[in-house]
Amino acid sequence: xxxxxxxxxxxxxxxxxxxxxxxxxxxxxxxxxxxxxxxxxxxxxxxxxxxxxxxxxxxxxxxxxxxxxxxxxxxxxxxxxxxxxxxxxxxxxxxxxxxxxxxxxxxxxxxxxxxxxxxxxxxxxxxxxxxxxxxxxxxxxxxxxxxxxxxxxxxxxxxxxxxxxxxxxxxxxxxxxxxxxxxxxxxxxxxxxxxxx
Length: 197
Fold this sequence. Notes:
Blueprint: H1 2-7, E1 23-24, E2 29-30, H2 59-87, H3 104-130, H4 134-151, H5 160-195
Antiparallel strand pairs: 1-2
Helix pairs in contact: 2-3, 2-5, 3-4, 3-5, 4-5
């Protein structure tokens, strides 16, 4: 029995070894000895968000419109003074004895109105470059500043007619600045888009 067990042993196969199947890589066949497990490719990066188009504008167009707005508001202040003093007989900014043009305060008022338009443009450009919904915030800031300009003359020690007319004139100038600059922003954005920058 022991001899039978010895004689029934399995003998190793002495023929040539069977060739291994090569591992197929993505583009070429690699022998098993050199095959390397590769890490999966990283997920594709999400594209960067495009810049906010509302912050793109042509500064040259913005400031050209600002200068035009300053000219309009300065002339509006002069026209308002002429209407008050010449047509309505209200002594705005100067006593009646100084005539229709008034005195140096008329020129100061016109220059101050023009400077307000330029300052509003600087504020608008800052908001456009840094703030979302810049035009909306600009409008609110200008509404509040105009309200201050309307209320301020009512505390002066002049006639009630002069107080009321100056308050109304300040209101008109503030509204004109806001409306004109909002239109200028639209033109500056269109100019930027047309330039293809």
